[in-house]
Specification:
By secondary structure, this protein is an alpha/beta fold. Helices cover 39% and strands 24% of the residues. It folds into two domains: 140 residues, Periplasmic binding protein-like II (D-Maltodextrin-Binding Protein, domain 2); 83 residues, D-Maltodextrin-Binding Protein, domain 2 (3-Layer(aba) Sandwich). The strands form four sheets. Strands 5-1-6-15-7 form a five-stranded mixed beta sheet. Strands 11-10-12-9-13 form a five-stranded mixed beta sheet, sandwiched between helices. It binds glutamine (GLN). Belongs to the bacterial solute-binding protein 3 family.
Length: 245
């Protein structure tokens, strides 16, 4: 008797914790991003404290179509999948490349953007013309990114940072030879750093997807429906024009 009562109380406590623990409600779509990946997600706006970007506009439409209010959580890139699988967030919108390794842990939407890795170096560096030239170079990357994985296959001198910003800073200070990063954010960093240049090498294309917890088909179907509609009605192209100038 005592035993079953204890079990009942625990269940009750667990239910209350689940409902109140992470402050999530059915009316809110909690989206996790790492807002250091312009133009997909970055901190900006009039007061410099808003999270904006291509992925955020996509998430806004997804939430609207699902009849929910959007809430953005700015999380370290490397922690996004853990946050999703612990129920802290409902969806990842963070320029995340669809990879077989990640597909083992999350479900991805249809691809919404094609990208590739590129190299950033200081203007005076003419030593890189092919992927082979990256061997033995000191490479800075963003922790947990596809660039990080790729760099580690190419060189044993790889330093990983929490954001691409920090990797670029290290390059500007000539502490590393190059940064390996996704094409669009690299182009965005380049605009603000004329002392750097971009080198496009023969890297395979990558495709970004939005991610949900494994088995969350209701949300996944709704996301895919929104993406399809946005591609058909011109809203997707308008977003590309708005963010990828
Ligand atoms: N596309 C890369 C990846 O998925 C980098 C994404 C990012 O840094 N936000 O690993």
């Amino acid at each position: 008797m005592k035993k079953s009562l204890t079990g009942f109380v625990c269940l009750g406590v667990a239910a209350v914790l689940t409902m109140s623990g992470c402050g999530k409600s059915d009316d809110v779509l909690v989206v996790g991003t790492n807002a250091a990946f312009p133009p997909f997600e970055y901190v900006g706006g009039v007061n410099g404290d808003e999270i904006k970007g291509f992925d955020i506009d996509l998430a806004e439409q997804i939430a609207k179509d699902a009849g929910k209010t959007l809430k953005i959580e700015n999380i370290k890139f490397d922690s996004l999948i853990v946050a999703l699988n612990s129920g802290k967030i409902d969806m990842i919108a963070s320029g995340m490349t669809i990879t077989p390794e990640r597909q083992a842990n999350v479900d991805f939407s249809t691809a919404y953007y094609e990208a590739t890795q590129v190299v950033l170096v200081n203007q005076d560096n003419d030593s890189i013309t092919s992927v082979d030239d990256l061997k033995d170079k000191h490479i800075a990357v963003q922790l947990g990114s596809t660039g990080d994985l790729m760099a580690k296959k190419l060189s044993n001198k790889v330093t990983a940072f929490n954001t691409g910003f920090e990797a670029v800073m290290e390059l500007k200070n000539s502490k590393v030879d190059l940064v390996l990063f996704d094409s669009e954010p690299a182009a965005s960093f380049l605009k603000k750093n004329p002392q750097l240049k971009m080198i496009e090498l023969d890297f395979t294309p990558e495709f970004y997807g939005l991610a949900v917890a494994k088995g969350n088909t209701e949300l996944l179907n709704s996301i895919n429906q929104t993406l399809q509609t946005m591609k058909q009605n011109g809203q997707y192209d308008a977003l590309v024009a708005k963010h990828m100038k």
